[in-house]
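Kindly inspect what follows.
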Amino acid sequence: MGILNNLFLICAFLGTGILVLKAILPIDSGSEIGGDFTDLTDTDSSFSLFTLESFCAFFMCFGWMGWAAKDYMHYPIKTSFIIALVSGVVGMLFFSWLITRIKKLEYIPQRDINELLNKTGKAYTTFNPNGTGKITIEFGGRIEELEARSNSDSEIKAFEPVKVVKVENNEIFVDKD
């Protein structure tokens, strides 16, 4: 077993090991430096070529294909190295493409506070006349607890139904329903 075979195997095991660990364990170093280098460049974050995972995919494909080309297909050293290099680049590009496709599946609802106008919810806390409190209301497909201001001259008790009567300067005004 030559030096090149050892290089291929080390790359294969390291790339595969780190990629599997990264997939299984939610590794978070707690620092502000992540695996993506898109913050350092002017690239679109939807396609991230230079990530820790894509480098691991490169080394994994490089190592396994180089080792297979040298040991099992019995190609010469130069041919094995070229096959490994091309396979690594293709693996890196494929992994980055796959991650961008997966990221497109994320649903991030666009919420506009003006959508709350004329919707009904419940007072979560008691509102003093023209005072502030909290309401629970469906917002953006979820039940949310939001700050609101009473538009009424009378008290609104907790758990009473309320209606959003005005939205002004990102402030929600409610009245008894």
Observations:
- Residues 84 and 118 are 63 Å apart (CA to CA).
- The two ends are 81 Å apart (CA to CA).
- The first strand starts at residue 120 and ends at 123.
- The longest helix spans residues 77-103.
